[in-house]
Amino acid sequence: MSSVAVLRSVALEAEFPETITRPPTPVWARWSLAAIMSSSAVLFFVDLLAAGFSDFYATGAKSMSVSWRAFFFGAFDPSATITLDKLSGFLIPQALSARLFGFSAWSLALPQAIEGLITIAAVFWIANRWLGPAGAVASATLFAFTPLLVSMFSHPMEDSMLTMFTVLSVAAWQRAIETDRLRWLVIAGILVGLGFQAKMMQSWLILPAFVVVYALWTRRSWSQRILRAAALCGAAVAVSISWMTAISLVPASARPYIDATTNNNVFSMVFGYNGVDRFLHGIFPGALPTSAGTAPIPSDISPAALLLRIVSHTPFKLLFPEYASQVGWLYPVAAAGVVLGIRQFRHWLRERRADEGVDRLAGSESGLQITVQFGLAFGVTLALVMGAMSLPHSAYLASMALPLALLSTCGGILLWREFRTALSLWRYALPIAVAVETLWTVWLLTSYPSFAGWIIPSVLVVGLASSAGLLAVARGRLEFTRFAAPVAIAAVAMALAAPLTWSISTVNPAFAGSSNDAHAGPSSVSVFDPPVSPAVDYGTGLNSNRLRPFTATLEAAAYDYAAERSSGRQYVLVTDSWRSASPLIMDGAPRLLPAGGYSSRAPSLTTSDLGNLVKLGKLRFVLLTGAASKNSAQSAPITDLQHWTRAHCSLVPASKFDPHNYLTVSGAPDSLYDCSVAPPQPSATGKP
User: Cβ contacts of residue 186 below 8 Å, gap of 6+?
Assistant: First the structure.
């Protein structure tokens, strides 16, 4: 290498130094990571054998696996007549897996298990750079055995891909702070945009933390900080809207109808139905409201019930057992990390400012401080947003696992440091934190006495004994080196006992959650809503519409009857509910036209459309299921289609396609209509 090249290399390193350096990861830490990932892999792959389907999205994965047109547009059906009610990026790995291994519950869940392992390794990598090998092992352990994540990474859910890309974006952002290079900020934005394809606007919740903490630590001028923050956010937004823009450029006549909208606009679906409508209905034009209506507050509601309704839209709801048992077992330790981190940051910053010749980013202490600030900023953003919105299922909280794992690790490091070195009253922070963590854990456990009652005495005794022992050491009553370490280890075991129990319980399918709601351990009745009775005609998960096998068998027979008489036609059937179409598509029926979308309220197929299809010879049969069978809602579009069908088509006698009298046995109001035959007209006497 020439001397000029050497000087140029040295100059670049001086301008953009690797300011936070770490020695090579020790062997014991690598083996620890291997053990963590192996344990997680066992849990994931055991659980995915009983993962089941989220029937609506599993149908989309099936369609995308057999039709490249459906794959590109993210369509619900193989003919790509209507999209899903969400961006379909999270289904791409599932569709490719189903195409490669065949369509099954485990093939759809497999990509999420792989995403989980990648995410755990990324958490270790992030923590190792800023918290050291011990902090990396602790963070990866806490993250991997967060109960909610064990269930989520074992089921085909969109939150898995979002969590993976969120953690990977943190790794890129971390490198941007360390190297001060713009490209890493852009890469972080790109990864946020890829997360948008999985869970839309939720992926953007990390951007405020990125911008604020980067601005605090970069050595650039404020004008450059603003420009770089704009580059980060611009890259995120550009990648986020890339697929949506491509879809919008396709003429409406050449693409599927956009579900969850009244104006067939993908931006209304993403930013309205899946965005601001979660907070306020009717704000974004063209978006269907997320529910048919909001129940009014009863005039005779009790003060306690009214208070719960208010709390259900604040961050305080995250303290209740139904959510805290999934992500929040270590809330007290994470809170200690925030308090002690802010305290030590102020003290550390004063020392740095006193010595102007020392780089703020130099040394490992800066990594801990940045971790605390990032965890606090991201955690507060998530708590405010998740607290205000209605949570359809607990998997929305999966993003909180990363800041909580990092803050809990920082809390443990700082508590131990204060305990060992502080000469002030701060040395008592550790025994106090252990006592608070013990009482918090016991309080959560009492919400599940039939499941975890046996843990309560152990946690209570070990936790309080550990707190008392640490208090005695802090007061100088016991020798530090002899008693502190084993007592601290006992306290750690106490803190991890409950989340590990919840996580390991997922090997039992009864405690593994479902593809519609990631949830480890026993299900608890929400403190905000009354218990919901299970549906009598269909359920959720693998056997939706098959809990009543007569109904599914009848519809399959109706499809076979229609298929034999629809040769050369574009469609075999129109169905008035995706619940009727779903089992048929998953069983391989290719030419279906489902109306109404997920909510049955999307005007994807009007009576004029239906009449034109019949007139042009593209369609002959319509299957009506009715509200008592499977329709999600009795909406105007569906009601109009049903009325038009009954007025213009002839009812096919059930005996022609139902030789075993399933219709009679099930009592389901499923009816097949032949639109090539006009219905009989009533005579002057009113009789046909």
Answer: 231, 232, 235
